Amino acid sequence: MRPINNSPIEVSVIIPCYNEGETIQLLLQALLEQTYPSTQMEVVIADALSEDDTRAKIAQFADDHPELRIIVVDNPKRTIPAAVNTAAQAAKGTYLVRLDAHSVPDQEYIALSVQMLKEGIADNVGGVWEIEPGQDSCIAKAIAAAASHPLGAGDALYRIAKKAAFVDTVPFGAFSKEIFNKVGCFDESLLSNEDYEFNTRLRLSGGKVWLDPRIRSRYFARKNLKQLARQYWRYGYWKLRMLKRYPKTIRWRQAIPPLFVFGVILFIILALFSNFARIILAGILGIYLTILLVFSILEAIKRRNICYLYMVLAITVMHFSWGMGFLYSAVDISREA
Question: Is 329 within a domain?
Fold first, then answer.
């Protein structure tokens, strides 16, 4: 029988989870090693009825480390926003620290987050991702590099920031349960961009979002191009749904991919009838791929690894998947009107 820990809970770490048997124990071990005292912390995992060995891995870790309170709740809706809301509802802590099941926070992650919340710096605080390959393969390494490169990440500060600043959004985030309830939980009608939408409502209500590079976590990127394409198509599709509600939140990096993809599609159609359109299309794609190739070669030289030449493929998949998802969402919205 596990010993009973009756210490008051100040922090609840809430984690959406589905089929994360490969990484869930890495996250739990990182939480166990936090400088923030485990006696004042609980871990609430909202599991979307995992079909792998995730639950067995969680149960094993809980048995081996009774000093860390671990609670598993079902997420039958099997979406991320529903998982966050379900975990938050079950949480007992004053502060909620949201993490991802395939992330590994630094030892100071929770302590720094809670300290900044207590100091009143902002209503939601977060840090930067150190993006790592999802597996030991050339394409996985290229995907991780592409996701943290300005050509892939654009101006997303949580991937490239070096200085602390007020921002539009942060990955994961830490906030008080009071603020979470006041703002209105996560919108379960959005299957992606739910954190950006939450932070938009928070800022519109007068709250502030703070990003500090001292708050760091390792994040495992997608393993292959198929997974990457699905991820970025989903990002693009649900980004437009979010922008429909808050059009003033659009940023240049979000507009470029759909405009570029739309232009390419347009010239592909025109090229069926015009030699001039074929020349324009070849020029656009030639310049685009040359730029990606140059930066991929520079990255391969910098890292002394030929694998990073695959960044050309990874960034192309990111741009076109995001853009196609955005455009497909526009078609769906017009049908609904």
Answer: yes
Which has the closest alpha carbon to 201: 187, 185, 189, 183?
183
Radius of gyration from C-alpha coordinates of the chain:
21
Q: Determine phi and psi for 165, rounding to 5 degrees.
A: -165, 160
Q: How many CB atoms lie within 10 A of CB 226?
A: 10
> Over its length of 337 residues, how does the chain's per-residue pLDDT go in tens digits?
344 456 789 999 999 999 999 899 999 999 999 999 999 999 999 999 999 999 999 999 999 999 999 999 999 999 999 999 999 999 999 999 999 998 999 999 999 999 999 999 999 999 988 889 989 999 999 999 998 888 876 666 556 667 888 998 898 899 999 999 999 999 999 888 889 999 999 999 999 999 999 999 998 899 999 999 999 999 999 999 888 888 887 777 778 889 999 999 999 999 999 999 999 999 999 999 999 999 999 999 999 999 999 999 999 999 999 999 999 999 998 887 6
CA distance 237 to 260: 16
Q: Which two tokens stand for residue 83?
A: 């998982």
How many Å apart are CA 156 and CA 253, to the nearest integer?
Answer: 8
Expressed as residue numbers, the domain containing 90 is 11-223
Interior angle at CA 67, CA 61 and CA 73, nearest 5: 55
CB neighbours of residue 230 within 10 Å: 13
The alpha carbon of 225 is separated from its chain's Cα centroid by a whole number of angstroms, namely 17
pTM: 0.88
Residues in the chain: 337
Partnered with residue 71 across adjacent β-strands are: 44
The count of domains in the chain is 2
> Do residues 256 and 174 share a domain?
no
| Same domain assignment for residues 165 and 53 | yes
Q: Is 13:41 a contact under the CB 8 Å cutoff?
A: yes
H-only helix segments in the chain: 24-32, 54-64, 80-90, 109-118, 138-147, 150-153, 157-160, 177-183, 194-204, 225-245, 252-271, 275-303, 311-336
Nearest to 168, CA basis, from 44, 52, 291, 253: 253
Give the SS3 label for residue 249.
helix
